[in-house]
Amino acid sequence: MAHHATRRDFLRVGLAGAAGAAVGLRGLRLDAQGSLASRLAVCSWSLEPTSAEDLFARLGQTGLARVQIALDPIRANEGGRWAGFGAAASRRGITLVSGMMGTVGEDYTTLESIRRTGGVVPDATWPETWKNVQADAEIAGQLGLQLVTFHAGFLPHEESDPNFAKLQGRVRQIADLFAGKKMAIALETGQEEAATLAAFLKKLDRANVGINLDPANMILYGKGDPVAALDTLGPWVRQCHLKDAVRTKKPGEWGEEVRLGSGEVNWKAFFGKLESIGFKGNLCIEREAGKERVADIRFARGYVEGLLGVKAGISG
Predict the structure, then answer these.
(1) Mind listing the pLDDT tens digit for each residue in 130-176?
(2) Is 313 a member of any domain?
(3) How many domains is the chain partitioned into structurally?
(4) Residue 31, pLDDT above cutoff 70
(5) CB of 64 within 8 A of CB of 42?
(6) Does a structural domain hold residue 120?
(7) Residue 271's domain is classified under what CATH number?
(8) Domain range spanning residue 244?
């Protein structure tokens, strides 16, 4: 599906390579506090950068100096284009608010294909995914990150499902790896309803595991109202992605990602609910569709700042 293809293509360079990028000095650490608007950031993959320098240039065009960074391209470091990323980001005053890692073999062509191939569920790709996760954790530590997000895959609804215990075990394995490095992880939402995810997290019983709530994904996958979901998932929300979508009119097919503010997310209610639950994390603008990514991200930034009535305090 178009709204996922670019992210998949961007991650692919990292999923085939071995660890070894020299990330240089530690990046800036996050201390999430202040108003919601002051915690705006952008997802690096949304800008489709071909190198660290390209990312810095595109960030400058958005007016944002805070970024959730995709770790897989840094790990692959094709052509040396991501070497010394941490030091370069620090010199430019760029704050790395969190990291993101992909899993091997994800196929977002259809809902059924991603159900089969997504996250850490498939046995065939788990060994390579686990190898990459370990390398990404090392890079995240070198960058001084405190949080890394990823898609775990479709969660079974029932504990009796054989995949439930398997997925619990693999997520615990990842959680314990990151806990040993004093980092947290967050599962990206959308592929299951809020109650299913909450039950999974309760059973998981890992203090360093939360969620990255993406309201648009819940609409794209047809998994409920993202504002209402906060009532259930509030205790686990560590970060949010800001993107928008409209629901499909054909069951079994994707919804459509659209420019933030033109879809079905009730942003005023969403931000109000975040405030009421005491959310302290970051808000990362994500755009995975369209050909005007920088313009769409700038628009999203202005839309959110206007809605919140507070300037983010960043130039551009």
Answers:
(1) 999 999 999 999 999 999 999 998 888 888 898 899 999 999 999 99
(2) no
(3) 1
(4) no
(5) yes
(6) yes
(7) 3.20.20.150
(8) 2-308
- Asked whether residue 314 is assigned to any structural domain, the reply reads no
Which is nearest to 210 in space by CA: 182, 165, 240? 240
Q: What CA–CA distance (Å, rounded) separates 138 from 146?
A: 12
Question: In terms of C-beta density within 10 A (0-12 exposed, 13-18 middle, 19 or more buried), how is residue 182 classed?
Answer: exposed
Give a yes or no: residue 281 inside a domain: yes
Residue 172 has which token pair?
């615990």
Place of tokens 């202005």: 302
Reported as a single tens digit per residue, the pLDDT across 190-208 is 778 999 999 999 999 999 9
Question: Can you name the residues that pair with 227 across neighbouring β-strands?
Answer: none
- Give the pLDDT confidence of 93-120 residue by residue, as tens digits: 999 999 999 999 787 777 677 777 788 9
What angle (nearest 5°) sits at the alpha carbon of residue 10, between those of residues 5 and 14? 130
Cβ count within 10 A of residue 236: 18
The helix (run of H) or strand (run of E) holding residue 246 is strand 244-246
User: What is the rounded CA–CA span in Å between residue 93 and residue 305?
Assistant: 21
What is the Cα gyration radius of the chain?
18
Which residues touch 291 (CB under 8 Å, ≥6 apart)? none
